[in-house]
């Protein structure tokens, strides 16, 4: 039997794959993303991505050029990420928790030609020490990114990239030195979605995912962006980073899958007496990024009658590559 990679056509653009597969009848008007008080359907996301691609092309972003994205999890992040790949160029998400020095380093190391960020980040980074940067696009201010893309024509064909061509870069956290860029190919997201989201977690079109890890992390990118899109599910975009805000989000949006990390599970348990989590919508809890202590796993099971499906992944492997199976989760084990 051919591998997932071999089943893909040699001419393959992963942005077109995830976007156009969700334009079929019964799915195109389905909600793809929840963001604050707004929702975006798959057809709207497709339209915004194509308009963004045209804007970036007019700015001179060419095939294999890099576009850096320094944003929290927002719709603009999604539009720019997919639009850059649609063009055959390469998005480079940057974690907003990085130091200013590391951000300057990534902008130089990636040789990003365009930066998408906010006015606040632009002010913090001024002067930007990169000879390669030609344009800075801002999501706020008088001429916002959204106002620019809504002026564009959406009729813009995707680049005829190959399945083993670089699609995007993700930088490591730099725990052993400077952040290092991991290059991921057009086929990689499909492989992770098939092997983990579908075959391991059983993700389906009625799911709504909520990820504590943000999209510049490999774990968060899969949880929020391409894995829900692989099955026509929905995802919640949130910048919450403490237990109280996460509990509020879960109560508000009623996700079916919680992609957490050990410290958040511990913090939610710690505030249970004053802010109990309503888990009635959740069918699955997942943990990664670091080892989940047995005590937390057992306490979560005792408190909420839910197993936590733990796995392990890396930036270089893109997502979780070793995992427990649903119904067979073993505390203290990554699979």
Fold and architecture overview:
It is a single chain. The chain has two domains: 41-185, Rossmann fold, CATH 3.40.50; 188-323, Rossmann fold. Helix 6 (119-125) links the parallel strand 5 and strand 6 (135-138). The strands form three sheets. The protein has an eight-stranded mixed β-sheet. With 335 residues, the chain is α/β, with parallel strands linked by helices. The chain starts with a helix and ends in a 12-residue tail after the last strand. It has twelve helices and 14 strands. 46% of the residues are buried. The radius of gyration is 19 Å and the shape is globular. The mean pLDDT is 96. Helix 3 crosses helix 4 (75-86), helix 8 (188-198) packs across helix 9 and helix 11 crosses helix 12 (294-304).
